[in-house]
Structure formats: structure tokens, C-alpha cells
Design goal:
The complex is a heterodimer of chains A (496) and B (337). Chain A is built from 17 helices and 24 strands. Chain A is of the alpha/beta class and 496 residues long. In chain A, strands 6-9-10-3-11-12 form a six-stranded mixed β-sheet, with helices on both faces. A six-stranded mixed β-sheet of chain A has the order 18-21-22-15-23-24, with helices on both faces. In chain A, strands 2-1-4-5 form a four-stranded antiparallel β-sheet, with helices on one face. Chain B has 337 residues and is mostly helical. Chain B has a domain at 47-261. Chain B contains 14 helices and two strands. Chain B has helices spanning 2-13, 15-30, 37-62, 70-83, 104-128, 132-151, 166-173, 185-203, 205-215, 217-222, 227-253, 264-274, 286-305, 310-335, and strands at residues 175-178, 181-184. Chain B has a two-stranded antiparallel sheet. In chain B, α2 runs parallel beside α13 (286-305). The longest helix of chain B is centred in the last third of the chain and has 27 residues, at 227-253. The chains are: A alpha/beta (496), B mainly alpha (337). The interface between A and B is medium-sized, with 37 and 25 residues. Chain B: GO terms for molecular function: transmembrane transporter activity. Chain B: The chain crosses the membrane at residues 14-30, 51-83, 103-126, 133-151, 183-201, 268-299, 311-329. Chain B: InterPro entries: ABC_transp_permease.
Chain lengths: 496, 337
């Protein structure tokens, strides 16, 4: 790809970026959110058309107008947002758009027998354990991701783009993916690999290209790079520390949970813990350990079968998020796009939406002036990078969207913050800022629950770490003495 | 390069207004007499009730739903109000012994009936999670049935209701004078309703919540918005607006039958969509909806004015609906980042 440029209204997303990928190598593409990685890949896959620049494959210039062109040219892609057709089977999802057919005169019929056979062959070759007939919607997130990986491989593509393929994979599954990647390499396939996880990059990549603010920083052999080097080139400055100094003081108990069991019995069972004022309680565990379900239930999004929740000593029944809000709780969900932002609304509306009654005058009018002042101050304190309060939130980067969502909840002046993977899909620089904010909130006396799948994050941030496995609490560790091994042991207590 | 993009942005941002202007200009070029105060007055008169109904439909569309019951609610409330507001000396009265009620009472009863149907829609959608299309398809059919039973009662026997009182029809046909101009009450009502709806959309909690629910219902729930209660209010207001539209339609035409308002819901949805309201929710403005209503109004009135076969008008309407949405989709597709 040579001299690719692409702009969106108000944003120069890519500015004269060139990228060369050798056959049979893994080429990592790195950069903060908004650096243009996904945009560049979408240009390659025909989802966007670049404003300038050219793409050559084997030295021949090609025109990629849509994803069909890309697939025809041997480029396939695992998208960051997984898009399965939920009610159709795994095999139909894999062969979507190119079902094997059997011809009968002028008619052609989908050949289910061959499709199943080829699916079984494919999954066996990749060592992925999936039922070809299971509806895609019934799969867990990590299984869905494995299905997408199988699909991308099934095109026999020469170039496979993997945009954050491991975001929902467990460590075992990630190792499995790496084995698949090494096999593909051996067959001469090139992989373009996008990830925020440094250790993964250093482990699997042959070459690393770093982008910053839509511009090319450079390309280096992975063997010449270290985590610190990558980070400093990504953010353009040295990052001395990955986590802020914690000076919060845990105080009296504000939240007490006893014997909490979900109405859906397959979910979490018999969960008990306490949370103190000014404390950061980390929740660790593998994907599927039902941590998200637990905080959603605390927030009134899921029904409970039994157990008690006490807030400031009072037993409470939380039937909806509106109830939870009245009890001064806040929930930052894991899926920013699906359950967080209102993409078409402004930064301002996105922020004050959960707090409108406070700005209502005479029971009718909204006092926009006061609202703007309050939101403006908060947006400034959180250092959200936005052209104005009127800007639509979908035009902000992931990290800034996350800060706006945090602002939304801070505006409600909560005592208890439930944060579900608060730094997921956010670039390194913004992560540090979010960490600092969380510590500052705890210092102000707010009680924080933070779910995280990144163990260094738990160790760096939490006063105590509660580990869950298969819907049960397997242990609560002291944040100062806990180790990754200890967390991992508790997180896998009931598996295998 | 940048200037071209600005022009493109401008065109797609204001496409509906440009189309409206171009239509008027084209008709005027063909027959300059089109540009007159009479035309303007007729145009506004003809489209006032449609605007009120379209604004009701916009409430539901922006919240992420769709309301097919609008037209049949118009029929119901037209019949209800007309049946209680016939002149005393009219020979075939719906209620032969009904005393002369003050005008506001039957009007209020009819609007309340519309509101009740809206509440029912909202309740079905919010409580049972029935998709709005299905819920309102159900009430659309049932409301027509109920209205027809009422309309068929002795002694009316499904006869068109006529002989409406002058003080009632004045709501639809009367006007007051400002200097040399006569301003129809109906237009004033429509303007007032539009202003009120604009305030609700932009300055109230309900309006903000409506955009949020339409834009991302999951996020709205997580944000602590009481989605069900808001939907109930949204469908109820929409129903009340259809109700008002029905009453005014009876007053304007001086009569009512159970088939009044038939297919108005589609006209209302078409006007909204052409006016930039997204059928997937979360997007839409009052000026846009009004422009959408006027575009169809100009097509109806203007093409008849210059003597174009009415069937051609239908084809042009169809083209405009599809064209408008295509332009809109392009606008959003371009920006998808």
C-alpha cells in the first residue's frame, strides 16, 4: 500500500501512509486508538475508498472497490466487531456468500452435505472444536471469534487481516490461534495483525509498523523492539509508568453482597463480598466466568434468584438501572458501542442523558445553560479530546468515548462505580489517564468495582482482587501480595 | 477539493429543502400564477392536519418504532367528534336527542380517545415487547372495527355524518383577518402544535429520552432511563396528535365516515422519511418533518394546478420517497467511521 490518504469530515484519518507486507510473514500494525489502523485495513478490504494512494499486490496495482474485490484478490479479514448471523448455523456463517452448490439442469441447490464435510475438514485442520450445526448466536464470544478465524482462513487467502482477534480469547485459545498463524505462515500466507497487547505482538510478529495520528511512524523488525520502545513510538513520548500511584484510603463498608445467585442458574451462584468506601475492588477471571453478569445483576439489569444486597447497611431491591441510579450506583458497561454510547447524539447529550431530572425546571423545561456548564467542566476535568460539546460522540476515538461515558456517570455523583473492562480497546496513553481518574475517584471516597481481564491491570490498580471461575467466587486476594500465577490458579480452579 | 466537499455536505444536509425549492421553482416556471398568496393559503390549509398527524408519527419513528394505527385513529376521532357536533335542525342526527354540547367537550373526548389508543399501543410495545409494527398493525385493524361498529349503530346505519355545526367547522375553515390578509385558524393550530412539538423534542426530558431510546435502546436502559414509561408517553402523545388531526379533518371537510384517514399513516411516515427522520430511530427534526409534508403538498396541489394527470403525481411521490432516503443513507454511509 503506497501513500494512502483518507479523510472524514473534520478528521484526516490517514495521511500518506505506506505499508509493505512480505509473503509468509506476520506484520503487526500498532498505534493508539484513532491512529488509523482500522481505517487503513478497511481501505485494503474495500470498505473505504482511499482519497489518494495505490495498492499493489505482487507488484501489480489493483483496484479494490468492495469486499468482494478484496476476497477475489485473496484478502480476507477478521473484523474487530464480530458480525455473525445469529440464527443460522456455524457452517452457514462460515460459507456465507459462497455456499457450495449442486447443479440440476438450470437450477442450483445448496449442497449441505458438502458444506458440512468441508466445515468439519476445516475445523479439524485448525483444531477448533465447534459444532457445525450450532446456531452462531448460541456461541460464547470467544467461540464466535474462533468461528470468524475459521471463516477467514477458509477463503485460502494470501493476506489475512486480523483486527484484534484475541480481544475475547482466553490464554489457551490465544496460544491456539498462534499455532494456526504459524501454520498459515508456513504455507506462504501473510498476516496483518492488529492488537493492543504488546506481549502478543512481540511473540508472533515478524515486522511491526507503527502509526500515530494517521501518519506512519515507521516499520521495524519485531526482534529490534521492546514493549517500552513500541509504547514510546506509539504515543510519541516516554511513558515512565503504566499505572498511577495509588493514594486512596479504603474506609467503611458501603456495599455488602451475600449469597447472590442469578435467576438464570447457569450464571453466577452464591457470590458474597464487601466493598469499602475509597476502595478499588478488582474482579478477575476468564471470559465466561460471569463477572459481567454479576455487575449487571447488581445494577438491576438481570433478575436474581436469591441473596441479599446491602448498601450503607440497608437491604435493597434493585429491579432496574433506574433503581440503581437512585441508590447512587453507576455502571460502565463492557460493550461501549452496544450498551454505552448514543452514536447520533452530541457529546453534551450523551453526558447529561442520565441526569436530566436534575436540570429540569418547573417540571418541564431543561435548563441547558446550567447543563452545559456542568458537562463542560467535567469534560475538561476528564480531558476529553473533542472539538466541541456539540460534536457527535461517534466522531470521537474509543478512549474519548469511554471518558464521556465516565463523565455521564460522574455527573450523577455516584458512590459506587461498577466498571466493566473500563480500558478495553483503548490505547495506552488514554489507559493511563483512565487509571488516574479511577484512583482519583477512589481517593474522593467513591467505592469502585473494576472488572478486568488484563492481570497486570488488576495487580496495578486493585486494593483487593476477587477472582471468579464458572460463576463462583474462588478467592479474594490482597492486591499488594497477589501474583499473576495466584490469580490464574483461582481463575481456572474448576476448568479441565 | 475542500470546497467540493463543503458543497456536497451542504447539498446532502439540506437536500429536502432544496428539493422543495426546486419543485416550487419548476412549477412556477411552467405557470407563474402558481406563486401567489392564494396558493400559499390553500397549500397550508390542505396540509395543516397532515402536518399534525406527521408530527405524531415522528414521535414514534424517532423513538425507534413505527405507528400504523395513525390513519384509523384519525377516522375514529373524526367520527366521534362529528357524531356529537351536528346541527340541531339536521334531519339525520347521529344522536337525535343530544343537546347542544360546548364544542370543546366532543373535541376533548375525541382527542382523549386518540390518546387512549396511543396508550394501548405503548403498553403493548413496552410491556410485552411486541414489535411496534405488529402492535400498531393490530390496533389499526381493531380500531377500524370498533369505529365501524359505532358508525353502524342505529339510527345512523353507516350513513356519512353531515350537517356539522358552524361553530365546529369554523375550526377547520374559519379564519381571522390581520390587515388585508385572512389567516385560517387551522394553520394557526398547526403552527402552534409544531412549535409545541419542537419544544418537547428539544427542551424536555421526554424529548432527550426519545432520541436516546431510538438511538440505542440498550444504552438508554443502562443509563437509568425508564424506557417503558417513556415509550408509553411517546405513543400516547402520538395518539393524541392523530386524534386532534381527525377532529380537524372532520371540521375542515364538514363531515365524517369510518373510512376517514384511511392510509394517512403511510402519508405521515412518507413525509417523515422524506423530511430526514430515520426509520431506524434516533434521528429527526420538526422543520424536516414539516418540509416533508410540504413537499407532498406541493406535488398534490402544484401538479393539479398545472394540470398534470394525478396518476403521474403518484409516480413522482414514489420516486421522491426512495430518492430522499437514498440521499440520506449516503450521507450516513459516508461518515461511518
Amino acid at each position: 500500500m503506497n501513500h494512502i490518504s483518507k479523510s472524514f469530515p473534520g478528521v484526516q484519518a490517514l495521511d500518506d501512509v505506506s505499508l509493505r507486507v512480505r509473503p509468509g510473514t506476520v506484520h503487526a500494525l500498532m498505534g493508539e486508538n484513532g491512529a488509523g489502523k482500522s481505517t487503513l485495513m478497511k481501505c485494503l478490504f474495500g470498505l473505504y475508498r482511499p482519497d489518494a494512494g495505490e495498492i499493489r499486490i505482487d507488484g501489480r496495482p489493483v483496484h479494490i472497490r468492495d469486499s468482494r474485490d478484496a476476497l477475489r484478490l485473496g484478502i480476507s479479514m477478521i473484523h474487530q466487531e464480530l458480525l455473525p448471523v445469529p440464527h443460522r448455523s456455524v457452517m452457514e456463517n462460515i460459507w456465507l456468500g459462497r455456499f457450495p452448490v449442486r447443479r440440476l439442469g438450470p437450477l442450483s441447490f445448496v449442497d449441505h452435505k458438502r458444506m458440512r464435510w468441508e466445515t468439519v475438514q476445516l475445523l479439524e485442520r485448525l483444531g477448533i472444536d465447534l459444532d457445525p450445526d450450532a446456531p452462531a448466536g448460541s456461541l460464547s464470544v470467544s467461540k464466535t471469534q474462533l468461528m470468524e478465524i475459521a471463516k477467514a482462513v477458509s477463503y485460502d487467502a494470501r493476506i489475512i487481516v486480523m483486527d484484534e482477534p484475541t480481544s475475547s480469547l482466553t490464554e489457551n485459545e490465544t496460544a491456539h490461534l498462534f499455532r494456526i498463524i504459524r501454520d498459515l505462515k508456513r504455507n506462504g500466507t501473510s498476516i496483518l495483525y492488529i492488537s493492543h497487547k504488546m506481549d502478543e505482538i512481540l511473540q508472533i510478529a515478524d515486522e511491526v509498523t507503527i502509526l500515530r495520528d494517521g501518519r506512519l511512524v515507521g516499520t521495524w523488525p519485531a526482534s529490534e523492539l521492546t514493549t517500552d520502545l513500541i509504547i514510546s513510538r506509539m504515543v510519541g513520548r516516554e511513558l515512565s509508568q503504566r499505572f498511577p500511584k495509588r493514594d486512596n484510603q479504603p474506609g467503611e463498608i458501603v456495599l455488602e453482597v451475600e449469597g447472590l445467585t442469578a435467576a438464570d442458574r447457569k450464571s453466577f451462584r452464591n457470590v458474597s463480598f464487601t466493598l469499602r468506601r475509597g476502595e478499588i475492588l478488582g474482579i478477575g477471571g476468564l471470559v465466561g466466568s460471569r463477572r459481567t453478569e454479576l455487575v449487571e445483576a447488581l445494577f438491576g439489569l438481570r433478575p436474581l434468584a436469591s441473596g441479599t444486597i446491602r448498601i450503607r447497611g440497608q437491604a435493597v431491591h434493585i429491579r432496574s438501572p433506574a433503581d440503581a441510579k437512585l441508590l447512587k450506583m453507576a455502571l460502565l458497561t463492557e460493550e461501549r458501542r452496544a450498551t454505552g454510547i448514543f452514536p447520533m447524539l452530541s457529546v453534551f447529550d450523551n453526558t447529561w442523558i442520565s441526569c436530566l431530572s436534575r436540570f429540569e425546571r418547573a417540571g418541564v423545561w431543561l435548563d441547558e445553560k446550567t447543563g452545559r456548564k456542568a458537562v463542560g467542566t467535567l469534560i475538561e476535568t476528564l480531558r476529553v479530546k473533542t472539538p466541541s460539546l456539540r460534536t457527535k460522540i461517534r466522531d470521537l476515538s474509543g478512549g474519548n468515548q469511554q471518558k464521556v461515558l465516565l463523565a455521564r456517570w460522574l455527573l450523577t455523583e455516584p458512590d459506587i462505580l461498577l466498571l466493566d473492562e473500563p480500558t478495553r480497546g483503548i490505547d495506552v496513553g488514554a489507559k493511563y489517564e483512565i487509571y488516574s481518574l479511577i484512583v482519583e475517584l477512589a481517593r474522593q471516597g467513591k467505592a469502585v468495582i473494576m472488572i478486568s481481564s488484563e492481570m497486570p491491570e488488576l495487580l496495578g490498580m486493585a486494593d483487593r482482587i476477587m477472582v471468579m471461575c464458572d460463576g463462583r467466587v474462588t478467592g479474594i486476594l490482597d492486591g499488594r501480595t497477589a501474583t499473576e500465577e495466584a490469580i490464574m490458579r483461582l481463575a481456572t480452579q474448576f476448568s479441565d | 477539493m475542500n470546497r467540493i466537499r463543503n458543497v456536497q455536505d451542504f447539498v446532502s444536509e439540506y437536500a429536502i429543502y432544496i428539493v422543495l425549492f426546486a419543485l416550487v421553482a419548476a412549477i412556477a416556471a411552467y405557470d407563474p400564477h402558481f406563486l401567489s398568496l392564494t396558493t400559499l393559503r390553500d397549500l397550508l390549509l390542505q396540509n395543516s392536519t397532515r402536518a399534525i398527524i406527521a408530527l405524531g408519527a415522528a414521535f414514534v419513528l424517532i423513538s425507534g418504532g413505527v405507528d400504523l394505527s395513525a390513519g384509523r385513529v384519525v377516522g375514529l376521532t373524526a367520527v366521534l367528534s362529528a357524531s356529537m357536533l351536528q346541527a340541531e335542525d339536521y334531519p339525520r342526527r347521529f344522536f337525535p336527542d343530544l343537546p347542544q354540547l360546548p364544542v370543546w367537550l366532543p373535541v376533548a373526548i375525541a382527542v382523549a380517545a386518540g390518546l387512549l389508543v396511543g396508550l394501548l399501543n405503548g403498553w403493548i410495545v413496552a410491556r410485552f415487547r411486541v414489535p411496534p409494527f405488529i402492535a400498531t398493525l393490530g390496533t389499526m385493524v381493531a380500531v377500524y372495527g370498533a369505529n365501524s361498529i359505532y358508525f353502524d349503530m342505529e339510527p345512523n346505519d353507516s350513513q356519512p355524518i353531515g350537517g356539522l355545526r358552524d361553530d365546529f367547522t369554523a375550526l377547520g375553515t374559519g379564519s381571522f383577518a390581520v390587515g388585508p390578509y385572512s389567516i385560517p385558524y387551522l394553520v394557526v393550530t398547526a403552527v402552534a402544535v409544531s412549535a409545541l412539538v419542537w419544544v418537547v423534542f428539544n427542551k424536555t426530558r421526554l424529548g432527550k429520552n426519545m432520541y436516546a431510546i431510538g438511538g440505542n435502546p440498550q444504552a438508554a436502559r443502562v443509563s437509568g432511563i425508564r424506557v417503558g414509561a417513556n415509550l408509553l408517553a411517546i405513543y400516547a402523545i402520538a395518539g393524541a396528535l392523530y386524534g386532534l388531526g381527525g377532529v380537524l379533518e372532520a371540521a375542515r371537510t364538514g363531515g365524517a365516515t369510518n373510512n376517514y384517514g384511511n392510509m394517512y399513516e403511510l402519508d405521515a411516515i412518507a413525509a417523515c422519511v422524506v423530511g430526514g427522520v430515520s426509520t431506524s430511530g434516533g434521528i429527526g427534526t420538526v422543520p424536516g418533518v414539516l418540509a416533508g409534508v410540504l413537499i407532498f403538498g406541493v406535488i398534490n396541489y402544484g401538479l393539479t394546478f398545472i394540470g398534470v394527470n394525478p396518476y403521474w403525481q403518484l409516480i413522482l411521490k414514489g420516486l421522491i420517497i426512495v430518492f430522499a432516503v437514498a440521499v440520506d443513507m449516503r450521507k450516513y454511509a459516508n461518515r461511518q467511521a
